[in-house]
Amino acid sequence: MKVVRLIDRLLTAVVTAVLICSFSIMLGLAFLQVFLRDTFHTGIPWGDIAARQLVIWVGFFGAYLATRSNRHFRIDVLTRFLGPRLRLWFNALSDIFAAFVCFFLVIASRTFVTVGLDPGATLFLGIPQTAAAAIVPAGFGLITAQFLLRTIDALGAAIRGVPPGQVV
Fold first, then answer.
1. What residues contact residue 29 under an 8 Å CB cut-off, 6+ apart?
2. How many CB atoms lie within 10 A of CB 152?
């Protein structure tokens, strides 16, 4: 379990750093666009496109962090009627199911990026459209990894009979 937690912490640190950078650049770009338009009646030609792309990136990184902290969308009506030990097993099953769904979303989004987009198209500053859209399969991949880490932790907790993260 220590290895799982170490991987989780490292992955989370990297995602958090990239999220902070992406969010800062997105806000800075948006502020600069508004300032330039209001003050000088001009703007950065690619600024709006870059900010829109960064919104998608920030959304996926935020979704990863929400999944990590168990603040993602979840339908848990059934768990209210289960005992504590059975709830641990149900959470493990729920997390592995979510990992499978996200894995299939990785495959579908990868197909979209490789087949559905023009590989020669660029967004701005020579950045290929496929490179910017790569966040979709990568984001679902990160979320899949997080659900797998949560599954391992939940299975260990269910076997031990204690809540995840608690050491016996």
1. 44, 47, 50, 51, 54
2. 20
**Identity of residue 59:** G
Alpha-carbon span 109 to 122, nearest angstrom: 19
Per-residue model confidence as pLDDT tens digits over 67-77: 998 877 666 77
Within the chain, how many helices (H) and strands (E) appear?
5, 0
Give yes or no for a contact between 21 and 15, defined as CB atoms under 8 angstroms apart.
no
Structural Rg of the chain based on CA atoms: 20
Q: What's the CA gap between 103 and 137, in Å, rounded?
A: 9
* pTM for the model: 0.88
3-state secondary structure of 128: strand
Structure tokens belonging to residue 150: 């949560």
Whether residue 167 has pLDDT greater than 80: no
Rounded to the nearest 10 degrees, what angle do helices 135-160 and 2-40 cross at?
150
Burial string for 50-83 (b: 16+ CB within 10 Å, else e) reads bbebbeebbebbbbbbebbeeeeeeeeeeeeeee
